[in-house]
Amino acid sequence: MYFDTLQDWLSWQEGFHPLAIDLGLERADHVFTALNPHKIKPLTITVAGTNGKGSCVAYLEAIYLAQGYRVGAYTSPHILKYNERIKINGQPVSDAAICEAFARIEAVRADHSLSYFEFGTLAALDLFWRADLDIQLLEVGLGGRLDVVNVVEPDVALVSSIGIDHVAWLGDSRDAIGREKAGIFRAGVPAIVGDPYPPSTVLETAAEKNAQLFCLGNDFGYYKYADHWDWYAGQQAFNQLPMLALKGEHQYRNAASIILAIQCLQHRLPVDSSAIAYGLTHVQLAGRFQLIEGEIPVLLDVGHNPEAVLTLVDYLSTYFPDKCIHAVFSMMKDKDIVSVLRIMKPMVQNWFFAPLANSRATTDSAMQEFFLQAAIPNVFFGYTGFAEAFDAARNQAQPVDLIIVFGSFFLVSDCLNEFEHRELIK
Questions:
Q1: Which domain holds residue 389?
Q2: Is residue 100 domain-shared with residue 226, that is, in the same domain?
Q3: What secondary structure letter does DSSP report for 361?
Q4: What are the tens digits of pLDDT across the range 217-269?
Q5: Does residue 1 lie within any of the structural domains?
Q6: Are residues 359 and 241 in the same domain?
Q7: I need a surface site. Which of 98, 234, 303, 324 has the fewest CB within 10 A?
């Protein structure tokens, strides 16, 4: 089956495979081998983790581009356009390039059915190996061991954090999830763990695979000061590093981890301290503590699990103390919604539920029950979507207040699309 437009390809892929999420490497590895029989690839850093994957890839991309290298970056999901998932030299690839990659995949996949995510990942890998890159940065979509990204042998494997998410596929404990994420480790390959308290299964898996393990706080770390921070790993150090463009204490864990990844490849892809400093201060990432100034400031965050929302609470407490906060909120139904609500309960004065046009999204009636379980008052329902919910929040808020939009990539996407339409952002 072949199509002329990217949207037609994507619409077909959404209904082609019987399962939206179907973990396993056999189908994708067969197609990848058919596309690229010798599995030619640039240097590869693979990034897994419950939270922080996108930030780690964004830091790495900014730093390697600052050094002048040709860089491919694969991330998911997108926020505004599908093309955001596949970037070469900092720019999303064109519709035509993705369509050509899909056509090459379709030509070789034979009777192997692929999911929407597998099509997209294979397209990225296909485009990257053909693009004469110096390095490719691959974000794992879900888990690690059985995620399609894992068909590629990494030169560095990085696990940013381990939390409870995607329990239906990865397990309901940090031990189970940690083992899945550590599945990207390889024998003799640097395996970097940015979680300060990793479950034992991560360390056990590294030992079983004979990976070269580096743990935050043990083998590398950082010291943060009022106007700079220092990084160290054994005898290596970078002092007087500038404060990060991405906000939140967790970003220093992410940044410390990616600096170690860069150092592990320094003999093959040298990077100087000025490129590191530039990348750390010029990185951009939509939807992560993204503040949009205006008469009433609006903060966007894609956080959608308890660990991410704990980080959001810490950020709000640090940068917006004593603010009256109004939340425009929505989540996918497979998330731990009640825990998220309980964590955010002390921070939010008024809640405005924004329904999403997505089959995985929580319905109005189900969300009402979750708010009752969390014993949260001042919750407003009955809106048709983000625009109505946001307008209700804005009408209730004062100029000295803060509106936060959080809980889902899809909600932040709706928000940014609406703001672009209203010309509230440039």
A1: 290-422
A2: yes
A3: B
A4: 999 999 999 999 999 999 999 999 999 999 988 999 999 999 999 999 999 99
A5: no
A6: no
A7: 234
